[in-house]
Design a protein that fits this description.
Elements lengths: L5 E6 L8 E4 L6 E6 L2 E6 L13 E8 L6 E11 L6 E3 L15 E7 L2 E5 L2
Antiparallel strand pairs: 1-9, 2-3, 3-4, 4-8, 5-6, 6-7, 8-9
Length: 121
């Protein structure tokens, strides 16, 4: 099922859409997210000040609309907000929208034989 550079996290049914599981790998752990049936892995370490990023609230994107004072909401469930200082990162890429030079390490996650598997960790 998993080779030396991959690790099984859980069975697919144990990580339904909209949930995250923190896996104790390395110094900080890796958060494995299910975003609408797609799996992503992020280092559980905020590059801003070292907060436990993957324990933060999963949220969407708030943007300015085209009309004055208009705000739009989109991409629900695709971002995680650091619980320490509120910086948000895109779960699929690890990039910060507000601070483009800042990113958190991401890991490929796949499904193999009914298990969610982190690769390259």
């Amino acid at each position: 099922m998993a080779d030396a550079s991959s690790r099984a996290v859980c069975r697919v049914e144990e990580l339904p859409p909209g949930t995250v599981k923190i896996v104790p790998l390395g110094k900080f752990g890796i958060g494995v997210f299910n975003v609408d049936g797609q799996y992503y892995g992020l280092l559980n370490y905020c590059p801003h000040r070292g907060g436990p990023l993957c324990l933060g609230r999963v949220t969407g994107l708030v943007e300015a609309g085209t009309a004055p004072y208009e705000i739009t909401w989109s991409r629900a469930g695709q971002f995680v907000r650091c619980p320490w200082h509120g910086i948000e990162f895109e779960i699929a890429t690890g990039r910060s929208i507000a601070l483009p030079a800042m990113a958190v390490r991401s890991y490929p996650v796949k499904v193999k034989d009914g298990f969610v598997v982190i690769e390259g960790a």
